[in-house]
Specification:
- By secondary structure, this protein is α/β, with parallel strands linked by helices.
- It folds into three domains: 4-125, Methylthiotransferase, N-terminal domain (Rossmann fold, 3-Layer(aba) Sandwich), CATH 3.40.50; 143-372, tm_1862 like domain (pyruvate-formate lyase- activating enzyme, Alpha-Beta Horseshoe); 378-433, OB fold (Dihydrolipoamide Acetyltransferase, E2P) (Beta Barrel), CATH 2.40.50.
- The protein has helices at 14-28, 53-72, 82-87, 89-94, 110-118, 161-164, 173-185, 211-220, 240-248, 265-270, 277-290, 309-322, 349-372, and strands at 4-10, 32-34, 43-48, 76-81, 100-102, 124-125, 143-147, 149-150, 169-170, 190-194, 227-231, 255-257, 295-302, 326-331, 378-386, 393-398, 403-407, 416-425, 428-433.
- It has a six-stranded parallel beta sheet, with helices on both faces. A five-stranded mixed β-barrel has the order 15-16-17-19-18. Strands 7-10-11 form a three-stranded parallel beta sheet, sandwiched between helices.
- It is globular, with a radius of gyration of 22 Å.
- The N and C termini lie far apart (50 Å).
- The structure holds iron/sulfur cluster.
């Protein structure tokens, strides 16, 4: 019998990447093998993102491509993830090429959905409203993601995540530790614990294991896993205990992703972020004061309803003062059902783009300054693969979550090597093996 071939296409955040890995592992247990490209697959799973309108537009375009592919050959097309949850039945009406749809709480029914689609049905699997974590989220390799939380209770006014992923659920510590131990046994070296807001781990269930304590336990049981990271920290919830455990435990990588979104208190309040620019900068100072060599990265959103030139000036000033090692920048677009959607979208698109350009240009200058301070220094990097741009070079990651390219043999993939950081191309280092 011919093996059945699976292709998974993933959009959005690291959480989606981890969940896609879980889908691959789940279907592999039923004999599915990975196809190299969608044209070779018997089943295509699209794991979608709804966070920004632009992500949904890309997915809509991609569905059109699959519609045309379906004219020439038969395969099953399954939509899952946040956009599947958001649109539900509407997705089947809008996109006739979709054969099955699995929502946020339906993950356990995915195999069943594939079977029913194979039998000619068009199933919509919603689950029972209880989110259950998969047991494993990695199909191998030196680096893996381990979800510790799902959903979000924060309701930032612009964000659709609490609506499509539901309320916060913390994964039991025993399950997290079991997955970490399994990754260690499999030779994994770099693990990232994931959640929309990891610092509120077990906030809702009265549990005694806070996130800093969970990190301590993961570090204690990590075996040969050398690097442990976590994403994402909400500034209002990052505690002194977290900074203390990072300072004490050498396996915890010196990188904090701390989305600020805006430098204007007025905009932060309208976004329902729960902190001020001053409070945020005090946190940055505390982190930098306790953790030598730490990198702090952020997300910045411009064009929020009512954002003025003065608000943009405050954001640029905060960026300069915080000295972000990297910033993921994006422009606002309203998401259906969120509080901010009621404010309309008054900042015109050309103005949003012009503000975004200024923020990106400012961040480029800050990156040159911050990363420039590391040039000439020796660092340890974990080689992750071959560079996509130049197959003769390797791609590696530093402890502080920067990327480096270096000449070297692919046999180094999955190994730590010592390098000298020689120059910069954007935010990526060029390095030489010592
Ligand atoms: S913390 Fe705010 S921005 Fe982040 S997922 Fe929750 S609601 Fe969205």
């Amino acid at each position: 019998m011919q093996p059945r071939r699976l292709f998974v296409e993933t959009y959005g955040c690291q959480m989606n990447k981890a969940e896609s890995e879980a889908i691959v592992a789940d279907l592999a247990a039923e004999g599915w093998e990975l196809a190299r490209k969608p044209d070779d697959a018997d089943l295509v799973v699209i794991n979608t993102c709804s966070v920004r309108e632009t992500a949904e537009e890309r997915i809509r375009g991609r569905l059109g491509w699959y519609r045309r592919l379906k004219r020439g050959r038969h395969f099953t097309l399954l939509l899952t993830g946040c956009m599947a949850e958001r649109l539900g039945q509407r997705a089947l009406e809008e996109f006739p090429e979709i054969d099955a749809l699995v929502g946020t709480y339906g993950r356990e029914g995915l195999r069943e959905a594939v079977r029913r689609a194979g039998a000619g049905e068009r199933p919509v699997v919603d689950g029972d409203g209880t989110f259950r974590f998969a047991a494993r989220h990695s199909s191998g390799g030196p680096r893996a993601f381990v979800p510790v939380m799902h959903g979000c209770d924060n309701f930032c006014s612009y964000c659709i995540v609490p609506f499509v992923r539901g309320p916060e659920v913390s994964r039991p510590a025993a399950e997290v530790l079991a997955e970490v131990r399994a990754l260690d046994a499999n030779g994994c070296l770099d693990v990232t614990l994931l959640g929309q807001n990891v610092n509120s781990y077990r906030r809702g269930d009265g549990g005694t294991i806070t996130f800093p304590r969970l990190l301590g336990r993961v570090a204690a049981e990590a075996g040969r896993i050398r690097w442990i990271r976590f994403l994402t920290s909400h500034p209002k919830d990052l505690s002194p205990d977290l900074i203390a455990v990072m300072a004490e435990e050498p396996r915890l990588c010196r990188h904090v992703h701390l989305p600020v979104q805006s430098g204007s208190d007025r905009v932060l309040a309208a976004m329902n972020r729960g902190y001020t620019a001053g409070g945020y900068l005090r946190l940055v100072d505390a982190i930098r004061g306790a953790l030598t060599g730490v990198s702090i990265t952020t997300d910045i959103l411009t064009g929020f309803p009512g954002e003025t030139e003065e608000d943009v000036r405050l954001t640029l000033a905060l960026m300069e003062r915080a000295g972000f090692d990297e910033a993921f920048t994006y422009r606002y677009n309203p998401r259906e059902g969120t509080a901010a959607a009621l404010l309309g979208d008054p900042v015109q698109e050309p103005l949003k783009l012009e503000r975004l350009d200024r923020i990106i240009a400012a961040q480029r200058r800050i990156v040159v300054r911050r990363a420039g301070e590391r040039l000439g220094k020796v660092a340890e990097v974990l080689v992750e693969g071959v560079s996509r741009r130049n197959p003769g070079e390797l791609l590696a990651r530093t402890e502080w979550d920067a990327m480096a390219v270096l000449p070297g043999d692919p046999s180094l993939i999955g190994r730590f090597v010592r390098v000298r950081l020689e120059s910069l191309a954007g935010a990526t280092f060029r390095a030489a093996i010592l």
